[in-house]
Amino acid sequence: MRKTIFITGGASGIGRAVAERFGREGWFVGLADIDEAGMRETAALLPAGASSIHKLDVRDREAWDAALSAFAKASDGQIDVVFNNAGIPLGGAVIENTPGEIERCLDINLKGVLFGAQAAYPWLKASAPGSCLLNTASAAGIYGTPGASVYSATKFGVRAITESLDAEWAPDGIKVASLMPGFIDTPLLDHAPHQGSNEDIRGRVTDNKLEISPVSAVADAAWSAVHGTRLHTRVGRTANQLAFATRWIPGRLRKAMRGSPRPMGR
Fold it and tell me: Against a cut of 0.70, is the pTM above it?
């Protein structure tokens, strides 16, 4: 029986790249998103008959159960990997972020991951050992990013969820892992960091001479994470430098952050 992966945020960006990567390896791919047109575009990039499409708002706990049940029906009852990838950016000083922006970021980036874990558990337990819950965290989950306190909080939360479930689900034979990318070349970079900004994130990142990694690097990292033993897989120079500095030169890192430009907004 061929392996299967269910991907949230599958309409574009990291989700699309991971779908293509696993599709090339012969996996059956479930695409989940609120963007149906984008999912159809992703499906067209995959081998014929190798995917199914599921409209899903990750903030809706009941919708998770419905989407995974529908995917299992399409995949002959097998779910090997659930990729908790859907997320949104939010930048700017915390005093500039509206209550609505804060709640939406928390709901999608954090509650959506928790709901996904709850819904995925029985399916992953049934296909264990060898099944995997893969979560998209961020370099912002390694050290808090100036100008992105809410986003950083959600990604620290995803890191914590990953570490907690790694221990909690180990007796069931379910692997839990995260990806920690820096800035990745996806459509999210073309969004404004928050409602009060008329600049896009990509321009800020470029102006500050920060690295933007190709999305294919995250797809390869996802493949390695599912098949390897690492708890957290960092992607890109920024993530690796932050991890090094956090461990070995925390005082210098703090000083640098306090005087650094803020690519996600003031």
Answer: yes
